[in-house]
Amino acid sequence: MRPAMRKLVPALLLAAAVPATAEPLEVLPTGHPVAQVRLGDRGPYRFVIDTAASNTSLLPRLADQLPELRRDAADAPLNAASGRTTTQIAKLPRFVAHGRTFRDLPAFLLPAGPVDALGVDGVLGADVVSTYALEIDAPGRRWSLLDAPTPTMLRGTLPPVPFTLDAARAPRVTVMLNGKPVPAILDTGARATFVNWAAARLAGVTPDTPGLSSGGEAKGVSRHATPTASTTFEVAVGEYQRPAAKVRIADLPIFALVGMGNGPAMILGIDAFADRRIVIDHPRGQLHIAR
Prior knowledge:
This protein is mainly beta and 291 residues long. It folds into two domains: 23-146, Cathepsin D, subunit A, domain 1 (Beta Barrel); 157-290, Cathepsin D, subunit A, domain 1, CATH 2.40.70. The protein is built from six helices and 23 strands. The chain has helices spanning 60-63, 67-71, 126-129, 151-154, 197-202, 253-257, and strands at residues 12-14, 23-24, 26-27, 33-39, 42-49, 57-58, 74-80, 83-97, 100-109, 122-124, 133-137, 142-146, 161-162, 164-165, 171-177, 180-187, 194-195, 213-219, 225-237, 240-249, 266-269, 277-281, 286-289. The strands form three sheets. A six-stranded mixed barrel has the order 4-5-10-6-9-8. The longest helix is centred in the last third of the chain and has 6 residues, at 197-202. The protein is globular, with a radius of gyration of 18 Å. This is Peptidase A2 domain-containing protein. InterPro entries: Peptidase_aspartic_dom_sf, Retropepsin-like_bacterial.
């Protein structure tokens, strides 16, 4: 899920008491990781942890309960995986995630769309998580957001994989696709992994390749649907290998919108780590994956 790509507006982080231990994590049937957050004294609310969303966002089911936000909101462009649209942006007076309090956090008020089917209240974006070491432990059903990884967090992990942050502070990592290097966006808000046709061809797959099947339609916040194909690839992130990973193929509009439209590109979704604990150390640019 990539509900926004815009310049981040820093929010004031208060030195509130921050839990040193992990908090409970919900994993939806779709694989999306969901954390509990609060808006002031209201909540808890269920937000998908999305490393590729530049801004934290509220879905209509929650935004409609807060008319004061809509009253003071301004129109804003929004680039999603399925294309560009327009939405509103408003400031959350007090937003709390993993014991950290953010004041006047700019947040998108998303329009109604396919994301509503997840049944959650919002999206926890890079404006919150990208300053910290983010641990998502899907098998253990817990998550952490700390200044730096603890020795316990890094115990039992493979050698770290380096990454950089793009203009919207989404992690970009090199993934080996059938042995070929492909630049990828690490997107914990995407339920599936996608490559464009340039990446598929680089890895030896064309529309005429035997065994290729329909991957259904890719839909996002903009409601635009993009047909996809599906097949398996050997996917490797550092020393972490998935020899027969199911990957969907489509030239999604987001690839062009984020400057990846002229060559091979990938969205590395949360499905790649469904059975793994990962630590995304944003300040140090290192991805740690459990063995």
